[in-house]
Design brief:
The protein has about 120 residues and is mostly helical. It has four helices and no strands. Helix 1 runs antiparallel to helix 2 and helix 2 packs antiparallel against helix 3.
Length: about 120
């Protein structure tokens, strides 16, 4: 499981860097400043949570268990929902995509709480 989260974290970091570069260079003249800021927020939170996935991979080597695994999956799902909805909103201008962004934020919050719980308990199963 630690290898899965390390791989997903590294791939997500790769995508976040690419998205950030695409936003800064490819979209700078094509999006309004407010939509460019939305896209940048998606890339920034994706990078934060790519690093969180690497932390989960490490944590899984110390505290393997359900809370640690659930934390990682919350970060994965949160990235897809949060960052994905912001990318779609910025690229399409469809404001409805912003309505699902908070679901991704809740998944991020759950991931952090679950990671704290796993560390607190020192899970070993």
């Amino acid at each position: 499981m630690d290898r899965i989260f390390a791989t997903l974290g590294a791939l997500s970091g790769f995508i976040a860097v690419g998205a950030g570069a695409f936003g800064a260079h490819g979209l700078k003249t094509r999006l309004t400043p407010d939509l460019l800021a939305v896209f940048d927020t998606g890339a920034r939170y994706q990078m934060f949570h790519a690093l969180a996935l690497l932390a989960v991979a490490w944590a899984f080597t110390r505290w393997p268990g359900r809370a640690t695994a659930a934390s990682g999956w919350c970060f994965v799902a949160g990235t897809v929902v949060f960052s994905g909805s912001l990318y779609l909103l910025a690229l399409t201008g469809v404001r409805g995509f912003g309505a699902i962004t908070p679901v991704g934020g809740v998944l991020f919050l759950a991931g952090w709480l679950l990671l704290a719980l796993a560390a607190w308990r020192g899970e070993t199963r």
